[in-house]
Every structure is written in C-alpha cells, then in structure tokens.
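Researcher: Let's run the pair from yesterday's discussion. Sequence first, then tokens, for each.
Model: Starting with the first of the pair.
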Amino acid sequence: MKYVDEFRDRAAVTALAERIKAIVRRPWTIMEVCGGQTHSIVRFGLDSLLPKDLTLVHGPGCPVCVTPIGLIDDAVRLARQPGVILCSFGDMLRVPGSQGDLFGAKATGADVRIVYSPLDALDVARANPDREVICFAVGFETTAPPWAMAVVQAKASKLTNFSLLVAHVLVPPAMEAILSSPQNRVQGFLAAGHVCTVMGYEEYDAVAARYRVPIVVTGFEPVDVLEGIAMLVSQLEEGRTEVENQYVRSVSREGNRQAQAIVDEVFEPAPRVWRGIGEIPRSGLRIRSAYAEFDATARFREVLASFGPAAQEDPECQSGLVLQGLLKPPDCPAFGVKCTPERPLGAPMVSSEGACSAYYRYRGTVRSEG
C-alpha cells in the first residue's frame, strides 16, 4: 500500500480497492484504452491494490504509439525538403521511424517547430508566406476538432501554404479489432474519458451489444480509475454488458455536437494502419475532397512516392503485442535492454502516454509477475 500515501483522496482509494476485492469472485481481464489511464495505474500502483484474479492489460490508447512507421518516415522526409517548415506537437519528435526521427531531422538542419495548438501552426503559416507549412496532425477524436477548425480557418483566410499530414485514429474500430482477434483476452473495457468528452458514448452501445462486453467510460485520476474498475467488475460478475459513464463530470451521452460537426465537415473515415497492429478498416480520418488542397499527402504525393514503399517495423519491438493487451511491457525481451528512452525501438517507450514509457519511468526494468 506504499503508493496510497501519494493520493489526495487516500480514504476513497482504500475504500474502492476493498470494494473491488469484495466484488471479484472469478478471474477477469480488463483493458484500459487510454494511455493516460495506463500512466495513472502504473505511477500510483493501482494494480497492486487489486485482487490477483483481476488482470489489467493496456490497450492502443496512445495515438503517438500507433502512428505507423511509414507516416513517421513521411514526416521526416517532408521536414527535410527545401522551403518546408514542419510543425508538430512535441511528443512526436522522438518517435523513431526507419530513418531516424524528427528530432534528428531538426538537429541536421530541418526546420521542425513544436506547436502547442493548431492556432500556433496557422500563425507560422501567416508569418512565412514563402514557405510550405506542413502540420503533423496526430491524435484520437479528442484533437481532431481543433485541427479541423484550423483547416476551415486556413481556407477562409486563403492560406495557400498550409497543409496537414493527417495521422488521426478512431477508438471504437480499434476496440472491435481487439475483440474480434482469435487471441483476444479482454472481457471488459475502461473507455477513454477525454475521447468521449468530444464524441459521447452512443457509438459504444453497438460494440457492447455485438461482442457482449461491458464498457465503462472512465476518467484519469486514481479514484476515477478504481471507480471505473469497480463498475466494470460489477457488470462482469452480474453478467451485464452495458455502457456506463463514470466520468459524469465531463462526459455526456451525446458528447460535443459542435465539435463532431466540424470534424465531419473536414474529415471522413478511412482505413488506417496502426503501428504494430496493421490496417483496421475505417479506423482513421482523412481530409475530404472539399478541403483537398490542405492534404499534405496529396499535395506532396510525387515527393513521397519517390521514396518507395513504407519500411517495416523493427522485428525486436513487441509494442504491437503490448498495444493489444497480449504482453506487459517488462515482458518484452528488448525492454530496458535494447529499448530505452534514449534508444527506443518503438513509440511506446518515448511517448508521454506510452505503456512502455510508464513502466520504465515508474518501475524501472523490473520484470512483471504475470
């Protein structure tokens, strides 16, 4: 119980842990989808407070981690083109591609700039009318609305030097891919609260019904996570497969309709390759034809095509198994040995929401007990 002293709500955490122990009567495996939840679990040792029959596994809930190696390579190649400014959130700079990362490209002369919002990127484009400003737009449904709004504003302002390299992915198709896999071991999901703040949770009803799994929309604080686990285990023990909302202070069933509308105006669903997992149908977003001039993939098609087919993943990196809940990070042979934050084999070791990063940061290189 050594971690409990770090909690602001120690009594609530202790009570929830005891409640979960009293509920669990059979072995269950549940997955938290969000990388923020993973970090909360690992940092505060929430898994150590739970009964041994309850197994937590980590899902593909880090958009940086699932960005395919081909898109990382495209970003690096575009950044190195003459006259290009590449804008990105900071957590993408250390993600390894087959030919280095954006941080390395910046170190060798590429104009790579960290931005904190799409509005920053628009300002860069306005201030540099003679340069091509390409933005690496990465994220789940949470960050899609501001990037969509940036495209709308760019069109209204008649900015001709602004485009997006889109790497947005969608959560429900990934959950379905995990559930439909012959290797699946997940019996219930803690859904990502921030995604549902935008999208609501209506679309999870079909997933819960089709695969007969309970889903609980959950926040990120230790009390949130434990309460979500308690709600999920209650459903499992009672044989219910419903969608419930623990994160009521931020999430409504319908979500943010205005944000959904702007995303739908600019983007449309498309197949997307997930790093370490493979292609999942309709699991990503691409720019609609009405805004095609802001699609960097189309705008620089000839440049990107000149580099040939996408590279393959490093065979020693087991992040795909981690992202599907089939392996804990410390059980990867490369973890902490050949794969470290200084020399990562895969994105989960360097992303701020990566599962491998969480284990390395808070638990070192200790192997898991199962």
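Model: Moving on to the second of the pair.
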Amino acid sequence: MGICNYCTLQRIRRRAEEDGQRVTVRNGWMGGTDVFVHPPDVEIDIAAAQEEHPQFKYWAAWLMSLGDHCEC
C-alpha cells in the first residue's frame, strides 16, 4: 500500500511552506477534495478546479477522501 491521503496533504503543505506558498483545500465538484498550492496573496475561487478557470494552474491534487489522521 502507498501513502494515505492525509500524509499526502501533509507533504504538500510542507513543500508549499518551504516554497513560501499557501495551500487551500476545497470540497471537489464531484466529491472528494481539491488541493491548491498558490501564492499567499491569491484567494482561490470555488470554481478553480475546472480546467478552463484561470486559477486551475494552482490545482495540485484531488483526494478521494481525506481523514483527520494518518492511515498508512
């Protein structure tokens, strides 16, 4: 088995912090969770996970489910 979604998100957050970026987590349009990594001065729109949206470039991951603890 691979890394769980909780640990994946923690890795994304650590990397973003190292790079001076921010992480935003939003409920996905079709379920799941969308993760965005973006500059601190950018506020992510609710529709940013759609490919035609200008902020889609900040989309980093889609997680089917996201728990509140490690499940590795």
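Researcher: Give me one sentence on the second I can quote.
Model: The first strand starts at residue 22 and ends at 27.
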